[in-house]
Amino acid sequence: MPRLKYASILRVLLILGLFCVWVQIMLSATNGALDKDGEELMNSNETSEQVLALVPPELHKYLTVHPKNSSANATERYSPKNISDILRAIQRVNDAQTIYNEDIFGPVQNDTIIIAIQVHTRLTYLRHLIVSLAQAKDIDRTLLIFSHDYYDEEINSLVRSIDFTKVMQIFYPYSVQTHPLEFPGMDPNDCPRDAKLEQALKLKCNNALHPDLHGHYREAKYAQTKHHWWWKANRIFNQLQCTASHTGMVLFLEEDHYVAEDFIHILNLLRSTADKTCPQCEILCLGTYLKTYQYHSTSDKVEITPWHSSMHNMGMVFNRTVWTNILELQEQFCAYDDYNWDYSLLHLSQNRPGREKFKVILCKGPRVFHIGECGFHHKKSNCNASTVISKVQKLLQDAKSYLFPPRVTATISAGGAKHNKKLIKGNGGWGDLRDQELCTNMTKVERQMRKYIYYT
Fold it and tell me: Cβ of 6: how many Cβ atoms within 10 Å?
């Protein structure tokens, strides 16, 4: 082949290769922009008058949107100016283990109900969760632990403005925000998600030999959720000084949940009913994903059934004894090829040596609701948080006379086909050996002494 023709072919191939790289970069940027735009749109929603009308005036302060929360500045949450400063701030907070309002509401007791709230960036939803918590009876006897995977001063200010109970903040230290160009974030040499094995081997990209069970490579933003949940549980049960002797209940919520005013009352009824009727019930559950609710007939009804991840993961409650049982199977949790923490728990439940699956006791009339119509897994174009929140408010207002039942009646169910279907394989997204190792190492951190840090 003549040299001129050969050189021309090489130039064409080089141009095509550069074009493909450019397209991939643009697609990644576009997808990232869409994710950000969806969250910014949702976060920029102003609370409607209809929603405010059902919120006591003294709680409107938690719904106040300050001018700096405009869409023009919202992108700053995704582009921190100084990651080193954020890492230092996270370490200070995690070391200090400060419990706000402890002087008002007293120290954490061994049986204090701990409410662990996983927080990302959906500020609007978080505001309404806080408002719902503020209206709950006996909330002043709890400890709220907000676990963040994103450091944001506006979110921090909101959390620290809570004055109705004890509050603590903890920060997941291995986030995508603080590791944007390295694992656990996206390393520039990470394999593209959809690269074929042969292509990955030629590229010599990170973890090329270990795609997930569907042939895909890791996406940091999805892997982070399972890491954060696992780190948060380890932090609360095994590392904080205030929980060193804690034997009470830990309720797991997320930023886009909303609670009924009697959720603590119902939680205590579930616990006492389980003690009498179902001592083998390891998990309590306050939420369901039903579309319609009949509180006149279900408010005082509870059900005992096999635990299933997609049905009983909202408002889930367990104690240190259950956590110890989970921790005994940590290798299975961390090695299971599924980026969902709840499906990973389901895998443990179905494969416990010599033991039955987890049993759950749940309220048929839910006390925890999902209000997150847009954000991480939901990409609706008309993301208006107020629409869903007002529906939940109206539902609870109509059900008010059926709340706070003096007792509950339990029924036992074997569960439907979905409950008992054996997991054949996971959903993937967790084939990277680095994710599995990071997950395993989180259980090796010992309890840290509380440091008293004085801020000027």
Answer: 10
Three-state DSSP class for residue 58: helix
Burial label, 25 (beta-carbon count in 10 A; 0-12, 13-18, 19+) = exposed
Q: Which domains does the chain have, with CATH numbers?
A: 44-444 (3.90.550.10)
Rounded distance between C-alpha atoms, residue 99 and residue 84, angstroms? 25
DSSP-derived 3-state class of residue 415: coil
**381, burial (CB in 10 Å: exposed 0-12, middle 13-18, buried 19+):** exposed
Strand partners, 338: 428
Strand order through the sheet with 301-306: 166-171, 143-148, 114-119, 250-254, 316-318, 283-285, 359-363, 301-306, 409-412
Read off the tokens for 381: 């174009």
Strand, helix or coil at 281?
Answer: coil
For residues 113 and 336, what is the distance between their CA atoms, to the nearest angstrom? 30
* C-alpha 445, offset from chain centre: 21
Q: What are phi and psi of 352, to 5 degrees?
A: -80, 120
Q: What is the pLDDT of residue 453?
A: 52
Identify which of 329, 259, 268, 309 has the alpha carbon closest to the alpha carbon of residue 287. 259
Cα end-to-end span (Å), the chain = 75
Please give the pLDDT value at position 414. 84
8-state DSSP, 47: P
Give DSSP secondary structure letters for 77-132.
GGS-S-HHHHHHHHHHHHHH---BTHHHH-PPPTTPPEEEEEE-S-HHHHHHHHHH
Ranges of residues in the chain with a pLDDT under 70 are 1-47, 66-81, 374-383, 416-420, 451-456
Cα(33)–Cα(312) distance, integer angstroms: 32
